[in-house]
Design brief:
Structural class: alpha+beta
CATH topology: Nuclear Transport Factor 2, Chain: A
Strand order of the largest sheet: 2-1-6-5-4-3
Low-confidence stretches: none
Number of strands: 6
CATH class: Alpha Beta
Distance between the termini: 48 Å
Strand content: over 45%
Mean pLDDT: 92
Radius of gyration: 17 Å
Length: 162
C-alpha cells in the first residue's frame, strides 16, 4: 500500500468515528447504524456491555440513550490508526463523555444524575465495497464521575421543540 492511500484511509476512518459520535449524541440511529459492519461487535466498559451484530449494538444504544430526558456528549480524541491491510485497520482513541439523565433511572445510570468520564476506545475496521465500517468497538474506562443533578437544573435539548 502506498503512503498516499494509507493517509486517505486514515482520514476516512477519522470521518467514520466522527459520524459514530455524532450519531450517538444526536440520536440519529440510522446514521449510527451506517457506521457498523453487519457482523460488528461491541465491548463497552471493559466488556460490561458486549453485543454481537449491528442490530444488537443498535438495540442497546437506542434503548439506553434514546430517551428525550437523556443527553450525551462524546468526544473521540488523539486517534492512533494503523492500516493493517488494504481492507482492515485498527484504531485507539481517547474518549471523553458527559451524560445527563434528567429523570427516571435506567439499569445503566440512576435518574437525576450526570456522568463525566474518560476511557480508551479500541476499534477494528473493515473496508466493505470501498467504504470503511466499524467491525469491533469498545472502551475501557479510566474514570467515571457520577454526580447528582442540582434540584434547580433543567435540561433543554433540541428534542424539546419536536
Amino acid at each position: 500500500m502506498d503512503s498516499l492511500q494509507e493517509l486517505i484511509d486514515i482520514e476516512a476512518i477519522k470521518q467514520l468515528k466522527a459520524r459514530y459520535m455524532r450519531g450517538v449524541d444526536t440520536k440519529d440511529w440510522e446514521l449510527l447504524a451506517s457506521t457498523f459492519a453487519p457482523d460488528a461487535r461491541s465491548v463497552y466498559s471493559g466488556g460490561k456491555y458486549s453485543f454481537e451484530g449491528r442490530d444488537a449494538i443498535m438495540g442497546f444504544l437506542s434503548e439506553s440513550l434514546g430517551r428525550r430526558d437523556i443527553a450525551t456528549l462524546h468526544h473521540a480524541h488523539t486517534p492512533e490508526i494503523e492500516i493493517t491491510s488494504e481492507t482492515t485497520a485498527r484504531g485507539t482513541w481517547y474518549l471523553e463523555d458527559f451524560v445527563i439523565n434528567e429523570a427516571q433511572g435506567t439499569e445503566h445510570m440512576p435518574g437525576g444524575t450526570q456522568l463525566h468520564g474518560t476511557g480508551i476506545y479500541s476499534d477494528e475496521y473493515v473496508k466493505i465495497d470501498g467504504e470503511w465500517k466499524i467491525s469491533l468497538t469498545g472502551y475501557e474506562r479510566i474514570f467515571e464521575d457520577h454526580q447528582p443533578r442540582h434540584p434547580d437544573s433543567r435540561l433543554h435539548t433540541r428534542w424539546d421543540s419536536e
